[in-house]
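Hey,
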Amino acid sequence: MYSPYVDGVVREIFERDSLYHAAGIASSTCRCVAALNVDTVYIGGGTPSLLAPADLQRMLDALRGSYRCSFQEVTLEADPETITAEKAEAWIAAGINRISLGTQSFDDKELAAAGRLHRRADIYEADRTLRAVGIRNISFDLIAGLPHQTEESWNRTLDELIALRPEHVSIYMLEIDEGSRLGREVLNGGARYSAAKIPEDDSIADFYGHACAQLAAGGFEHYEISNWAKPGLRSKHNLKYWLREPYFGIGAGAHSFDGNMRWANAHDPAGYSATLGAGKLPVEQKEVLSEQQALDEEFFLGLRLLDGIDVSAFEARYNTALWNSVRNRIDQLAARGLVEWHDRRLRLAPNHLAVSNEVFVELMS
């Protein structure tokens, strides 16, 4: 069913140089990508666990045949209801050693309101199945702010998650997206799709605070605004985004960054496959970043990490006038208690993690 799309992904890997040239991507970028040592892979977007294991194997084998690969962490996003022992065993054989489980909640009413196909029992079955075949690195994700969510149901979800002892946890606060049916209903003041049952913003912030406390008590390290891990098990792949290291995205909607330029493929899978079939890479966006954009990105991404930013490195890397303008903004935010200095590193104030986007907007304004 999905093989034509996978054919396109494999073609993008093998025909990188000619496709980049046709898309007007600089030869210096091609050299940067060719020189990458592929040590982490993240297979995400949509529900890739629906792909046939043989197709996942084909994509990983294509990477092995085109790059220097020393896979340390290969993650597959998987929805609980799509997991079987047979598929999980094939994933391991293909080289996948980490699963990001689309949990969202342990409350069936909340899952139904969110339009999810799985239920609480499916989460437990998926966890048992993955552990039984030998997966030893599982990340669970939750959403704070789902319709019908209460303090009681949220704390129950946290308790159940911690009892399963995952290696990694991601928690995202519900965002209203005008592109979704729920988002449009909320913005229009309607009640369909349980829009009227979404908790208040203050309650969602409280849910986040409860999660911080309970996960800390459960032995998890809070290392990024939305991410917690057991010691030594932080997401190696995602850390590259936050540290602004080069990465190479393949497939529909995939984003790439070579340290100076960003580009993204078209989102539509059918259009992506058709364009590749015509010998072209469907690049939808392409941008060379200015020094100002690079500096802003480093701050925005670096402040997502609870370790904060080594500001002295910025002073050495950026021109004085540019740096001074940012330093003035930092001083203003620090005076208001939104950011703080800790061991000569700048970080978000712990009590403002739940409203980090507001701080980022002010910092970048």
